[in-house]
Design goal:
The chain is α/β, with parallel strands linked by helices. The chain has one domain (17-332): Alpha-Beta Barrel (TIM Barrel), CATH 3.20.20.70. The chain contains ten helices and twelve strands. It starts with 16 loop residues before the first strand and ends with a helix. It binds S-adenosylmethionine and iron/sulfur cluster. Residues 26, 32-33, 70-71, 73, 101-103, 125, 163, 165, 192, 194-195, 197, 329-330, 333-334 line the site of S-adenosylmethionine.
């Protein structure tokens, strides 16, 4: 049998990185991500663990070497550890890296089995170290669990990168201390600008904080040296001389990173989104549930390569206007 063709889009970009959402559910309700009363998907619409595994194998066959599980909160899905273990067996056999993005609330329980499954690095989202601010922002008083989870991750030998959404008037003033703490723990930290994805109660524009402003403040305190570190994504990296740690800045509303884009996203219902900032999609669930899933999946992935846009066209919305995209980040998984 001939080897399946690698995933190369119409702009000659080779797609090697898949972000796969394993659930739209979450135990937190971060104000910028979802409304308090979020309606979650009925089970029949969500891919089963077997389907998620089969799909992942199909992608690995087509040259995906890095797989990130995300959500929603991946660790709230029942039996997700079975999927992590099954995919962990593909590390070194098709996959270079299996990783996940989590809010950390369940890491105390899962850090050891995750590490044992072959995961080396994880991303943990943490916007503040202040318990009251956390409780207000995430609408759940879960900071103690997250900190316990981070301890467990460290003890399990997992490399941790923190993701922090920069929010004007919310965590703006405490970002430098959060970075200092993270670097002291041996964690990398990446700051992210808030993106206009899905309806939430508040107007995100009120809290939009350009990272250029954050960087200016940080540079008044520390020396930021541009780092050669690259991941093929939108982050630019800096080494902070004084802390000895690495800082990433993600400014998703600029699109000057799109030329090197190597990634695609699949939602928990099996919708492949060719770009986080666009609506171009292919239904992989239909392919998986068809009479000849293998052939249908091949065809669907070929189609995805034809529709991946050259670049996204996000723009931070004007105050009070509708979000740039209707779907929440918890659908496409960030
Ligand atoms: N629940 C997991 C977590 O929080 O890490 C994984 C899914 S979450 C959707 C992935 C990342 O997206 C998190 O770091 C979160 O802060 C970020 N995020 C969610 N909504 C966002 C938005 N509107 N703008 C920017 N980042 C967002
Ligand atoms: Fe949940 Fe992550 Fe969204 Fe927060 S950002 S509500 S933790 S999915």
């Amino acid at each position: 049998m001939t080897k399946p063709a690698p995933l190369i889009d119409q702009f000659a970009r080779r797609i090697t990185y898949l972000r796969l959402s394993v659930t739209d559910r979450c135990d937190l309700r971060c104000a910028y991500c979802m409304p308090e009363r979020q309606t979650f998907l009925p089970k029949a619409e969500v891919l089963s663990l077997e389907e998620l595994y089969k799909l992942s194998l199909g992608f690995i066959d087509r040259g995906i070497t890095k797989l990130r599980l995300t959500g929603g909160e991946p660790l709230v899905r029942r039996d997700v550890i079975d999927l992590i273990q099954a995919l962990g067996r593909k590390v070194g056999d098709g996959l270079d890296e299996l990783t996940l993005t989590t809010n950390g609330t369940r890491l105390a329980e899962f850090a050891d089995p995750i590490a044992a499954a072959g995961v080396k690095r994880i991303n943990v989202s943490l916007d503040t170290l202040d318990r009251a601010t956390f409780a207000k922002l995430a609408r759940r008083d879960s900071l103690p669990q997250v900190l316990e989870g981070l301890e467990a991750a460290k003890a399990a030998g997992l490399k941790v990168k923190l993701n922090t959404v920069a929010l004007k008037g919310v965590n703006e003033d405490t970002i430098p201390d959060l970075i200092a703490w993270a670097h002291g723990q041996g964690f990398e930290l990446t700051l992210i600008e808030v993106m206009p994805l899905g309806e939430v109660e508040e107007d995100r524009f009120d809290h939009y904080l350009p990272l250029s402003a954050v960087r200016e403040k940080l540079e008044a305190r520390w020396t930021l040296n541009a780092s050669g570190h690259r991941t093929g994504g939108p982050a630019r990296y800096f080494d902070v001389a004084e802390t000895g740690g690495r800082l990433g800045l993600i400014t998703p509303l600029t699109n000057n990173f799109c030329d090197g884009c190597n990634r695609i996203r699949v939602t928990t219902t099996g919708q492949l989104y060719a770009c986080l900032g666009g609506n171009e999609r292919v239904d992989l669930r239909e392919a998986l549930r068809s009479a000849d899933p293998e052939a249908a999946l091949e065809e669907a992935l070929d189609l995805a390569m034809k529709i991946k846009p050259a670049r996204h066209n996000f723009a931070i919305d004007r105050r009070g206007s509708a979000p740039a995209l209707a779907r929440h980040m918890s659908m496409t998984g960030g």
